[in-house]
Protein backbone atom coordinates (compact mmCIF):
# COMPACT_ATOMS: atom_id res chain seq x y z
CA UNK A 1 0.00 0.00 0.00
CA UNK A 2 1.27 3.41 -0.86
CA UNK A 3 0.55 5.71 2.06
CA UNK A 4 -0.61 9.02 0.72
CA UNK A 5 -2.30 10.32 3.74
CA UNK A 6 -1.79 9.75 7.43
CA UNK A 7 -3.12 11.82 10.24
CA UNK A 8 -3.61 11.47 13.93
CA UNK A 9 -7.32 11.64 14.41
CA UNK A 10 -7.82 11.47 18.08
CA UNK A 11 -6.59 10.37 21.42
CA UNK A 12 -9.22 8.48 23.35
CA UNK A 13 -9.55 7.06 26.81
CA UNK A 14 -13.23 6.23 26.74
CA UNK A 15 -15.25 4.29 24.10
CA UNK A 16 -17.36 7.42 23.60
CA UNK A 17 -14.25 9.08 22.17
CA UNK A 18 -13.40 6.32 19.68
CA UNK A 19 -13.89 7.38 16.06
CA UNK A 20 -17.34 6.66 14.70
CA UNK A 21 -16.38 6.10 11.06
CA UNK A 22 -16.43 2.30 11.20
CA UNK A 23 -13.11 1.83 9.36
CA UNK A 24 -11.13 -1.30 10.29
CA UNK A 25 -8.50 -0.94 12.97
CA UNK A 26 -5.14 -2.58 13.55
CA UNK A 27 -3.95 -2.20 17.11
CA UNK A 28 -0.38 -2.00 18.32
CA UNK A 29 0.51 -3.16 21.78
CA UNK A 30 3.83 -3.41 23.53
CA UNK A 31 5.98 -2.32 26.41
CA UNK A 32 6.90 1.32 26.73
CA UNK A 33 9.98 2.20 24.72
CA UNK A 34 9.93 -1.04 22.76
CA UNK A 35 9.69 0.86 19.45
CA UNK A 36 5.95 0.99 18.73
CA UNK A 37 5.82 4.59 17.54
CA UNK A 38 8.91 4.06 15.40
CA UNK A 39 7.25 1.00 13.87
CA UNK A 40 4.16 3.03 12.92
CA UNK A 41 6.24 5.93 11.62
CA UNK A 42 8.36 3.60 9.51
CA UNK A 43 5.30 1.93 8.00
CA UNK A 44 3.75 5.25 7.05
CA UNK A 45 7.02 6.88 5.99
CA UNK A 46 6.75 9.70 8.47
CA UNK A 47 9.50 10.99 10.70
CA UNK A 48 7.30 11.72 13.65
CA UNK A 49 3.57 11.37 13.21
CA UNK A 50 3.39 8.85 15.99
CA UNK A 51 5.06 10.34 19.01
CA UNK A 52 8.37 8.68 19.73
CA UNK A 53 9.97 9.34 23.00
CA UNK A 54 12.88 8.03 24.96
CA UNK A 55 10.79 8.71 28.06
CA UNK A 56 8.78 5.56 28.71
CA UNK A 57 5.17 5.69 29.73
CA UNK A 58 4.32 8.99 28.11
CA UNK A 59 1.43 7.91 25.94
CA UNK A 60 -1.51 7.13 28.19
CA UNK A 61 -4.32 7.35 25.67
CA UNK A 62 -5.34 5.25 22.70
CA UNK A 63 -4.09 7.13 19.64
CA UNK A 64 -5.94 6.62 16.38
CA UNK A 65 -4.01 7.23 13.16
CA UNK A 66 -6.12 7.34 10.05
CA UNK A 67 -4.28 5.92 7.05
CA UNK A 68 -5.37 6.76 3.48
CA UNK A 69 -8.87 7.44 4.76
CA UNK A 70 -9.24 3.67 4.82
CA UNK A 71 -8.12 2.16 8.12
CA UNK A 72 -6.67 3.09 11.52
CA UNK A 73 -3.54 2.15 13.36
CA UNK A 74 -4.39 2.30 17.02
CA UNK A 75 -1.47 2.85 19.32
CA UNK A 76 -2.28 1.28 22.67
CA UNK A 77 -0.20 2.81 25.46
CA UNK A 78 2.80 0.80 26.58
CA UNK A 79 2.60 -1.56 29.50
CA UNK A 80 5.21 -2.52 32.03
CA UNK A 81 6.32 0.89 33.08
CA UNK A 82 7.47 0.50 36.66
CA UNK A 83 7.12 4.12 37.64
CA UNK A 84 3.38 4.50 37.18
CA UNK A 85 1.26 4.11 40.26
CA UNK A 86 -1.04 1.16 40.90
CA UNK A 87 -4.05 3.37 40.25
CA UNK A 88 -2.63 4.48 36.89
CA UNK A 89 -1.87 0.90 35.98
CA UNK A 90 -5.40 -0.22 36.83
CA UNK A 91 -6.86 2.64 34.81
CA UNK A 92 -4.67 1.74 31.87
CA UNK A 93 -5.64 -1.95 32.22
CA UNK A 94 -9.34 -1.10 32.06
CA UNK A 95 -8.89 1.15 29.05
CA UNK A 96 -6.95 -1.52 27.19
CA UNK A 97 -9.31 -4.33 28.13
CA UNK A 98 -12.36 -2.31 27.10
CA UNK A 99 -10.85 -1.53 23.73
CA UNK A 100 -9.62 -5.06 23.02
CA UNK A 101 -12.77 -6.81 24.12
CA UNK A 102 -15.47 -4.47 22.81
CA UNK A 103 -14.20 -3.00 19.59
CA UNK A 104 -15.70 -4.94 16.68
CA UNK A 105 -13.75 -3.22 13.92
CA UNK A 106 -10.43 -4.05 15.58
CA UNK A 107 -9.18 -6.76 13.22
CA UNK A 108 -5.73 -7.64 14.39
CA UNK A 109 -3.14 -6.85 17.04
CA UNK A 110 0.55 -6.35 16.42
CA UNK A 111 2.30 -7.18 19.65
CA UNK A 112 5.64 -5.39 19.47
CA UNK A 113 8.55 -6.91 21.41
CA UNK A 114 12.27 -6.24 21.54
CA UNK A 115 14.22 -8.60 19.28
CA UNK A 116 17.27 -8.33 21.51
CA UNK A 117 15.76 -9.79 24.65
CA UNK A 118 13.68 -12.68 25.93
CA UNK A 119 10.06 -11.60 26.15
CA UNK A 120 9.19 -10.25 29.59
CA UNK A 121 6.40 -11.49 31.84
CA UNK A 122 4.36 -8.48 30.65
CA UNK A 123 4.88 -9.52 27.02
CA UNK A 124 3.78 -13.07 27.81
CA UNK A 125 0.73 -11.88 29.73
CA UNK A 126 -0.27 -9.59 26.90
CA UNK A 127 0.03 -12.40 24.38
CA UNK A 128 -2.00 -14.73 26.62
CA UNK A 129 -4.64 -12.03 27.01
CA UNK A 130 -4.93 -11.52 23.25
CA UNK A 131 -5.13 -15.27 22.68
CA UNK A 132 -7.67 -15.73 25.47
CA UNK A 133 -10.01 -13.28 23.75
CA UNK A 134 -9.41 -14.99 20.42
CA UNK A 135 -8.09 -11.85 18.76
CA UNK A 136 -5.93 -12.49 15.68
CA UNK A 137 -2.38 -11.27 16.32
CA UNK A 138 1.15 -11.16 15.01
CA UNK A 139 4.26 -10.53 17.09
CA UNK A 140 6.66 -7.93 15.71
CA UNK A 141 10.20 -8.22 17.06
CA UNK A 142 11.79 -4.86 16.43
CA UNK A 143 15.29 -3.33 16.76
CA UNK A 144 16.65 -6.23 14.67
CA UNK A 145 19.43 -3.91 13.48
CA UNK A 146 20.91 -4.12 16.97
CA UNK A 147 21.61 -7.84 16.61
CA UNK A 148 24.18 -9.25 14.16
CA UNK A 149 22.54 -11.21 11.36
CA UNK A 150 24.38 -14.37 12.33
CA UNK A 151 22.36 -14.42 15.54
CA UNK A 152 18.95 -13.66 14.05
CA UNK A 153 17.85 -17.28 13.86
CA UNK A 154 18.75 -17.94 17.45
CA UNK A 155 16.85 -14.86 18.69
CA UNK A 156 13.90 -15.56 16.43
CA UNK A 157 13.38 -19.07 17.80
CA UNK A 158 14.03 -17.98 21.38
CA UNK A 159 11.20 -15.46 21.15
CA UNK A 160 8.92 -17.86 19.30
CA UNK A 161 9.48 -20.46 22.00
CA UNK A 162 9.14 -18.10 24.97
CA UNK A 163 5.83 -16.80 23.64
CA UNK A 164 4.75 -20.26 22.55
CA UNK A 165 3.80 -19.01 19.09
CA UNK A 166 1.89 -21.34 16.77
CA UNK A 167 3.99 -20.77 13.63
CA UNK A 168 6.96 -18.91 12.13
CA UNK A 169 4.44 -16.64 10.42
CA UNK A 170 3.28 -15.40 13.82
CA UNK A 171 6.57 -13.55 14.26
CA UNK A 172 7.90 -10.76 12.04
CA UNK A 173 11.41 -9.46 12.40
CA UNK A 174 11.54 -5.71 12.05
CA UNK A 175 13.82 -2.69 12.18
CA UNK A 176 12.71 0.90 12.03
CA UNK A 177 16.29 1.83 11.22
CA UNK A 178 16.89 -0.42 8.21
CA UNK A 179 13.34 -1.17 7.08
CA UNK A 180 13.81 -4.90 7.66
CA UNK A 181 10.36 -6.53 7.69
CA UNK A 182 8.64 -3.53 6.08
CA UNK A 183 7.30 -5.44 3.05
CA UNK A 184 6.24 -8.41 5.16
CA UNK A 185 4.35 -6.17 7.58
CA UNK A 186 2.53 -4.34 4.77
CA UNK A 187 1.66 -7.58 2.99
CA UNK A 188 0.10 -8.82 6.22
CA UNK A 189 -1.80 -5.56 6.74
CA UNK A 190 -3.20 -5.78 3.22
CA UNK A 191 -4.30 -9.37 3.85
CA UNK A 192 -5.95 -8.36 7.13
CA UNK A 193 -7.81 -5.50 5.49
CA UNK A 194 -8.98 -7.65 2.55
CA UNK A 195 -10.68 -10.17 4.81
P1 LIG B 1 7.55 3.37 22.01
O1 LIG B 1 7.58 3.91 23.42
O2 LIG B 1 7.26 1.90 22.00
O3 LIG B 1 6.66 4.13 21.08
O4 LIG B 1 9.06 3.45 21.47
P2 LIG B 1 9.73 4.47 20.43
O5 LIG B 1 9.28 4.21 19.05
O6 LIG B 1 9.59 5.86 20.97
O7 LIG B 1 11.25 4.00 20.51
C1 LIG B 1 11.99 4.01 21.72
C2 LIG B 1 13.48 4.20 21.39
O8 LIG B 1 13.96 3.10 20.64
C3 LIG B 1 13.75 5.44 20.54
O9 LIG B 1 14.97 6.01 20.98
C4 LIG B 1 13.90 4.87 19.13
O10 LIG B 1 14.74 5.65 18.30
C5 LIG B 1 14.51 3.51 19.38
N1 LIG B 1 14.11 2.54 18.34
C6 LIG B 1 12.85 2.19 18.00
N2 LIG B 1 12.84 1.25 17.02
C7 LIG B 1 14.13 1.01 16.72
C8 LIG B 1 14.80 0.13 15.78
O11 LIG B 1 14.19 -0.62 15.00
N3 LIG B 1 16.18 0.15 15.79
C9 LIG B 1 16.90 0.95 16.64
N4 LIG B 1 18.22 0.88 16.57
N5 LIG B 1 16.30 1.78 17.53
C10 LIG B 1 14.95 1.82 17.57
TrEMBL record:
UniProt-listed InterPro entries: G_ENGB_dom, GTP-bd, GTP-bd_ribosome_bio_YsxC, P-loop_NTPase, Small_GTP-bd
Cellular component GO terms held in the UniProt record: cytosol
GO biological process, one term: division septum assembly
Domain (EngB-type G) ranges: 22-195
HAMAP family named among the record's database cross-references: GTPase_EngB
Cofactor: Mg(2+)
Protein purpose: Necessary for normal cell division and for the maintenance of normal septation.
Name the UniProt record assigns to this protein: Probable GTP-binding protein EngB
Alphabetical UniProt keywords: Cell cycle, Cell division, GTP-binding, Magnesium, Metal-binding, Nucleotide-binding, Septation
UniProt organism field: Trichococcus palustris
Similarity remark: Belongs to the TRAFAC class TrmE-Era-EngA-EngB-Septin-like GTPase superfamily. EngB GTPase family.
Entry-linked Pfam families: MMR_HSR1
Keyword check for Membrane: no
PROSITE patterns: G_ENGB
GO-annotated molecular function: GTP binding; metal ion binding
Top-level taxon of origin: Bacteria
Amino acid sequence: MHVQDAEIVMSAVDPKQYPGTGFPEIALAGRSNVGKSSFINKLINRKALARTSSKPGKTQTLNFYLINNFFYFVDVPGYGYAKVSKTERAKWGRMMETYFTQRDQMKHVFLVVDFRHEPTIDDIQMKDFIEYYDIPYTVVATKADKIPRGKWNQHFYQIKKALNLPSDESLILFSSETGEGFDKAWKLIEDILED
